[in-house]
Amino acid sequence: MTTFESQKSDSVPEPTAPEASASPVRASRDHAVDLVRAACLVVVVGLHVMMAGITVETEGLAITNSLDGHPIFAWSTWLVQVMPLFFVMGGFSSLLAWRRQRDRGVSNADYVRDRVARLARPALLPLGLVGLTLAVLGLVGLPDAVLSDVGFRIGQPLWFLAVYLGVSGLVPLMARLHERAPWVTLLSLLAAVMIVDTVALLTALPLIGAFNLLFVWVFVQQLGFCLADGWFDWRRRWMLGLAGLAAFGVLLFLTTVVGYSTDMYDNLNPPTAAILVLGVGQTLLFAFVRPWITRLAQHETLAGLSGAINRNAMQIYLWHVPVIVLIAVVLVVSGAPFPEPLSEGWWQSRPPFLVAVALLLIPIVIGVSWLERRSEARGGPAPGPVGPWMAALKVILGIVGVVTLLIAGFTPAYGAAIGVTLLLLAVLLRSPRRRSLLTSGHEPSGEASVERGGDSSAERRSSLESR
């Protein structure tokens, strides 16, 4: 990750949007962004552990959201719903990573190809193993209802992968719009979000809201672009805190007057204007406390910890729910008692359960990361350039693969097989025409040509930073 370093004095906000986008600043790694991204991932994993309500019923194991309906949970989501902030940090890193690669001559399509591979490849092993395991358990007689429930719970967090594939694939286009017409881009996305929310409400068709999976998260990613270009480096920093509180005041109005849910997880599926406003507030408050976070992040222990988490972010996200389910199965088999969700005994069981998840997740992530590094160390031919249509096809295949898993689940097994196969195609698919040009000794012209050889490892490192 990189950062925009700023000097602050005592007047009005700077730089302005046109100045920021006209002459973007290249700078070094931003430790505050690193630390916040890592913290967001820790919050997500911890919250999923807290949500895991495990009960043993007559049909077998059942996994529910134990916090659903808790009287204080809805309001607590204003603090623990960190996905908007995570997308802001991702937008910050993606913009600067894309600019570095663009300066080296990497085309839009080749950037997208690398992003799809970086996001989709880590998903193949855990999703394939989950599908295979559930298929075997079905063959040995485990009830279909239990398998479907387990598969559904494991698949729920995959929405993030589908959305992140989409917004990452749009980074070159949205970066160009940000640099040419930043305010028009932001206001157009905001208008689209409001139109979708209004139509979904008036027609009573929640499926209409699915369009905001695009508009809301692209808007939030654009906030990360603005952060990277110094839009929030205001000289009077107290104004950032005041503006952040004002954004939460708008959120309070939306939830108490307009009718949006006070539960930010309800507003997440599908995303609504409430999530957009939450993202604005989180961005402003992050900018307000950024100097303190930067100093905190410079501590050697915290810097090393956040670096380790960020390097393995996809593995942590993809493996933590299967680990939660695996521990639950082991507890069932061993005959351990399961306290009633939200009971005193249940609350007392959360710390050891969280420790158990961490103790199992850490070695799995280390092992998978070691295999990935070993695979990269063996090298191989650099990926050939792809055209824009092939890059778009890769993004679409990746998204459709994940959506297949979300809709069809892991049971029956063919749903998992189709989803994983589409993800595999998204990673492996090449452009035959361009590959034939390369093997015949002709270089493709235009933006599609990229530097190969020594630069390929640098590109991979840059892709890692932009995760």
Residues in helix, %: over 70%
**Low-confidence runs of at least 5 consecutive residues:** 1-26, 434-467
Outline: globular
User: SSE string, helix = H, strand = E?
Assistant: HHEEHHHHHHHHHHHHHHHHH
**Number of DSSP E strands:** 2
> Helical region count?
19
Write out key terms for the chains shown.
70% helix; mainly alpha; disordered N terminus; globular; disordered C terminus; 19 helices; two-stranded antiparallel ribbon; 467 residues
Gist?
The chain is 70% helix and 3% strand.
Description:
This protein has 467 residues and is mainly α. It is built from 19 helices and two strands. It has helices at residues 17-22, 31-51, 73-80, 83-103, 108-139, 144-155, 159-169, 171-180, 182-203, 212-228, 238-258, 273-297, 300-311, 313-333, 344-377, 388-408, 413-428, 432-439, 455-465, and strands at 52-57, 60-65. A hairpin with a 2-residue loop joins strand 1 (52-57) and strand 2 (60-65).
Secondary-structure topology with pairs:
Elements: H1 17-22, H2 31-51, E1 52-57, E2 60-65, H3 73-80, H4 83-103, H5 108-139, H6 144-155, H7 159-169, H8 171-180, H9 182-203, H10 212-228, H11 238-258, H12 273-297, H13 300-311, H14 313-333, H15 344-377, H16 388-408, H17 413-428, H18 432-439, H19 455-465
Antiparallel strand pairs: 1-2
